[in-house]
Amino acid sequence: MLDPTLQPDHPLVAASILSADFGRMAEECRDVLDKGADLLHVDVMDGHFASNLTMSVDMIRALRRHLPDAFLDVHLMVEHPGDYVDEYAQAGANLFSFHLEACRPTGREVDGAQDAATLIERIHTAGMHAGMAINPPTPSDGLEPYLDRLDLVLVMSVHPGRSGQKFMPEVLDKTYRLRQRIGAQTRLEMDGGLNPTTAPRATAAGVDVLVTASALFGADDREAMIRQLHASAS
């Protein structure tokens, strides 16, 4: 199984199953993994933090049952990520990413908000790798106190909610700054509008995990698409 703390020699391809055929999910996931995808990216939305309602913990259990060796990168776009840590760990998630925007601002008490440092510790204690994500308008400064504790940083290059949106190049500057700040054992992931045209811009900014959804699952030749994404850093 993939070890995300090892620096890859080419950008990793994370197949976002939001664009897969839900009626053939296990088959679709097995297909992209067999054709070269490095991991599966699972978007969980609660209909509040992001304007969509998607996969529950039952999807993680099913994927783990059918694909025992797959690395499951779970991205929670939810208001209260701390409510899900234990059940997603038990279901078989390998990496649990939550949003900075869902956390309590430093030095302020906000009802129901989570403390990021405590969440990271809980995720690690539960046996998962820990990631934090930021939306396109969010500055990267809020991640600074946590960078040395994170296994992955995720920069959204579209607004969370739905696949098929256009890549937002304005996120590249903060992505580059983050790459200068994080260590070799921390992966830098980008999600949104990535394809063979936009991926080289992401990898030039330091991204080493490319989340791809509609570009991959809608491709006529998925294997060729994955090869192009793997080669995007060259």
What does this protein look like?
- This protein has 234 residues and is α/β, with parallel strands linked by helices.
- The chain has one domain (12-230): TIM Barrel.
- The protein has 8 helices and 8 strands; from the N terminus they run βαβαβαβαββαβαβαα.
- It has an 8-stranded parallel barrel with strand order 1-2-3-4-5-6-7-8, surrounded by 6 helices.
- The longest helix is centred in the N-terminal third of the chain and has 10 residues, at 25-34.
- The model is unreliable at 106-110 (pLDDT under 50).
Percent helix range: 25-40%
Query: How is the CATH topology named?
Result: TIM Barrel
Oligomeric state, counting identical vs distinct chains: single chain
Rg over C-alpha atoms, rounded to the nearest angstrom: 16 Å
Broad shape: globular
**What is the succession of H and E elements?**
EHEHEHEHEEHEHEHH
Per CATH, the architecture is: Alpha-Beta Barrel
User: What would you call the structural class?
Assistant: alpha/beta
Query: In CATH, what is the class?
Result: Alpha Beta
Number of strands: 8
Residue-averaged pLDDT, rounded? Answer: 91
Biggest β-sheet strands, sense, barrel: 8 strands, parallel, barrel
Q: Tell me the strand percentage band.
A: 15-25%
Write down the domain tally: 1
Largest sheet strand order: 1-2-3-4-5-6-7-8
Q: How far apart are the first and last residues' alpha carbons, in Å? A: 25 Å
